[in-house]
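quick one
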Amino acid sequence: MPRADDAFVRFEGVTKSYDGVHLVVDHLDLEIARGEFLTLLGPSGSGKTTCLMMLAGFEQPTAGEIRLEGRPLSRVPPHRRDIGVVFQSYALFPHMTVAENLAFPLEVRRLGRAEIEERVRRALAMVRLSGFEHRRPAQLSGGQQQRVALARALVFEPKLVLMDEPLGALDKQLRESMQYEIAQLHEQLGLTVVYVTHDQSEALTMSDRVAVFEAGRIQQLATPRELYEEPKNAFVARFIGENNRFRGIVEGIEGGVCRVRVGEAEVRALAVNVAGIGKPTTLSLRPERVVTGEAAHHLPNRFAGRLLETVYHGDHLRLRLALLGSDAFIVKLPNRPGMADTLARGTELVVGWRVEDCRALDA
Amino acid sequence: MTAATAHPAVSHLAATALRRHVRRSGRRRRLAAVGLTLPLVAYLLVFFVLPILGMLRLSVANDELATTLPETTALLRAWSGEGMPPEDVLAVLAREMRAAHAARTLARLAKRLNVESAGFRTLVLATGRNLPETPAGSWTETFLALDPEWGKPAIWGALRRAAAPWTDLYLLAALDLERGEQGEIRRVAPERAIYLGILGRTLWISFLVTAACLVLAYPLAYLLAGLPERYANPLLILVLLPFWTSLLVRSAAWIVLLQREGPINQILQGLRLVDQPLQLVFNRAGVLIAMTHVLLPFMVLPLYSVMRNIHPSYVRAAISLGASPWLAFRRIFLPLSVPGIAAGCLLVFILAIGYYITPALLGGADDQMISWFVAFFTLQTVNWGMAAALGTLLFAVTLALYALFARVVGVDRLRLG
Ligand SMILES: Nc1ncnc2c1ncn2[C@@H]1O[C@H](COP(=O)(O)OP(=O)(O)O)[C@@H](O)[C@H]1O
Ligand SMILES: [Mg+2]
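structure w/ magnesium ion:
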């Protein structure tokens, strides 16, 4: 975690409303360290782009202040901020060639001809597009356009790079290889990156830290591992990865562990975010943390369920069970030889999980 | 590649059948497509292509002599053209002229010949009236006795040219050219050279109007394109509002506004910007003001349509890359709006060079454009040849402009709204 005094970018109580009624961004406090790869993750319409546009200077905060290296940005016009932006639509200038697109920020800065040529050449080599100098954007594939947009945002060596769902328009395979390339560039060039996506797996694989957005607020700001393994609330648990959820009433809390009544049964869970005894809570449990058969016998949470469906995924099996009043209880099991044959539909199955793997969150 | 090579399982026979089937179903679809466009094609043919062809034909038509004096025409075409024609030709000419005089068809020919040289009308009409049935001596003597002009080569040259199936007389006249006695092309006398001046004036007025429209429309379209659609659409309807009244009414309204005691002069005097009322109407200023107003929507619409499609992220990208807003406009937005500028200018210019009503109402004698002369020759002097030749000139200028546009901007990038 960055310390307050070495914050590179700092949002201080930033609030934004377009219509004077709805808060698109709601009292946002956020610190980004130099060299960090921070991702804003959230469903569509949660205010991620608005945050980025305020940072880039194309939207003004309704209240609050954004600081870059300690300086308030509100009085710096967007073209003086030295922030590279990769737009979702790439925004490559259609009337210019690739080389002219890359030269644009350098010409604007009145660099010499030779230096511009050299930098453009290096930037193209960096994104492995040497030889494409004289193409127009329309003559490039989606992935190539994306790489040109990336090179253009980096060629003038900005202090900070913003990327708004840069891979949204690419197919899965291309997206994964670009994720890798962007992460590599971040590493090699020591860039500070603020990255926006609604794809949780992208956020988890690329980022140092992830800020999960909902309705203009950060629900949790943490490393990918923490987000996945220790979600702070039901929204984050639901949004990041797959999980089984039960709604219940808290019956008792002792030493960070609580007893929760779910229908007839009692479940023991970590009291992460509960309101108190007698209050409702949502239990969250990752499907891969559930064990079956012999291994379940000595666990504090142990229940019998009926197998409704088995889906074969090659490396693992997904079982759907009727359990604790839900008929969508998912279990993920590593595939072992002969295992698929023993799991017939309608089988009674004993499953169990540890207290630490089941988190009691807000209702 | 045929179906047979792509799928070896398909036998040659089956492949042939398949190909025939594909071709037949394709043909049916093509026929349906042609059928659907047929009404439009027929409409364009009847009301657009045929009139243009008719105009082009009229501008070179030369049938007055052939219809009035058909036998003479044939003989004149065969004649060598030296001195006066031989007796037998003159005999036929005399007989046909008398007949035409009796049938009252000689006037049309007289008018045609008068275009070649003023004075030929009187010569032909008087001769037709006074020709005797039988010659006094030879026909040569008879003609010379009626008028010594018949002894000069000019009239015979004119008659021989009038006997040709086509004439370039009108087209040359529209360019202030004529054929000399030896048939060579030469400039007309300076006092008769008016059409090039009128063409130049027409192009100049159209250019000024186009420039004024562009200067006024560009900021407006820029503003509209930046607004959310729920504001932009009603404002766009306001731009189109002038189309709800006729061109005539709008032009006449400008007379009221611009006259010496009109509201514009009153405001200017009220604001003490001028002491004397300005002469704003029945001169060039009135024509320019009114034509700019009338043609403005034709500039706004293509500009707006192109600007709407320039995604704001282009300009934002330029600014994020370090360009000031003005530089981003100049380097990014302006070049991307060029197809709209070109389409608007082309449209306004082409409409402007054909304008008639507005200059006729708001201009003085020196502000009339080519169309005024087309109307003059059609309605006043009934000189179809001259009217058609000026129309052809206008048509040629329009085609040239379009070709220029196609070369510079490209037809596929034309957007009219
Ligand atoms: N320029 C704008 N004017 C008005 N409302 C806007 C504007 N931009 C975004 N919004 C609204 O703000 C909310 C958040 O939008 P955005 O920041 O684009 O979300 P995200 O990028 O997370 O999908 C949405 O409800 C959207 O409709
Ligand atoms: Mg967005």
